Amino acid sequence: MTIDRRSWLGGAAAMAAGLGATPVPAAARTRRRGANDRVNLAVIGAGGMGASNMANLTSQNIVAMCDVDLAHVAKSVSDPKRAALKAAYDKAEKYSDYRRMLDTRTDLDAVVIAAPDHHHAVAAKWAMQRGLHVYVQKPLTYTVREGRVLAGLARDNAKLVTQMGNQGHSGDDGRRAVEILRGGAIGRVREVQVWTNRPIWSQGVARPDAVAAPASLDWEAWRGPAPVDWGYNPMYAHFNWRGWAPFGTGALGDMGAHLVDFPVWALELGLPTRVETRHSVWGSPKNPGDGSYPLATVTYFDFGNAKGGPIRMTWYDGGLMPPTPLGMPAGARMDPGGGVLYIGDQGMLMHETYGEKPTLIGDGVAERAQAVAQTLPRIQGGMGGHEMNWIRAIRGQEAISSPFATAVPLTETMLLGVVALKAGQPIDYDGAASRVTNVADANRYLDREYRKGWEL
Predict the structure, then answer these.
(1) pTM score > 0.70 for this model?
(2) In the prediction, which pLDDT does 278 show?
């Protein structure tokens, strides 16, 4: 797909301007909710992660649910610990196509979107255009352009409360790590190392043959916006889709919203100016991008416009990790599941995937960190309160934790690693114009094609 360069020059504003007529003005449909009001909710993608989100929202009115496989949803709520969610789901009206649900249910206030990555932006746009608050699982979008579109919608409809599902952003430990870093306890940071054990699904493998879809699964609705017609295979749905290029965004898209969040936030990095991704073999070596992502990647992000001066962040996935830093405290270890290491000129700080367990490394660092004042608000319930933070923000009771104004540039940063992977060479990026400047062909990876009827 060829991108109209002019549409990028105005950033999010230019993107939003090209959306076309809104079915009903969003402001006209957005209802104010008081402190004691229950919010009328719908969920798109009601099993899996959607069930986890909704289990934290059973105090609200769950009036509708959309899922392409109700048998999968039933399995997700079979745990007796989710009895309240099962009861709410049993009462909710059922849909397999969220477009129909959003067009026919006029009683909705808000929507949780937890479908696969390739649906996120399309579903969010439909909901926001209809005046609904949205909670969208990470990654917020499948492409860079989609993020700019959602940012424009959020900016132009200020009454809408938006949240991305990166719950670590609400955690006490992560917020304290941000304060310590900003307070200068480890000095000037010029290097950040980030790692994860993902993928924990199939990657670096050949595309399987199509087989008959389960009778309970609406495969065409699951495909949704994806233009490929590969046919069903259990290696795609319900969980392994993350590793397949038309449906997911790989390990970076899955875990970057947690891990990359903290350095982007704490160090005020802005958008990267140069990105390069090294990788193992693609699942389809002769046609990268047409199949599964590589099993492991290392991505180098250079932030030339970071607030405190240039910083390099290195991302490792597939079980790869940076070397253990010298001077680790006795008993401390680098969590092989994932973590972040900040290297400053006066010490180091390390934390786990969701910002948990900040570890201070170096002489005098602990003393300097202890002197750093608390400057960030704490979210009621911490990480476990991320969903209810969204509800309380809708009611006007608490500031939102991870709105699209925060989530879009974070998601764009992550996705530029995927763009560099697909480009096969380093890319130089102009964030103001949202354009790759040194590899013209790479700009096509900032956007994507959509199946008819599912366009953004």
Answers:
(1) yes
(2) 98
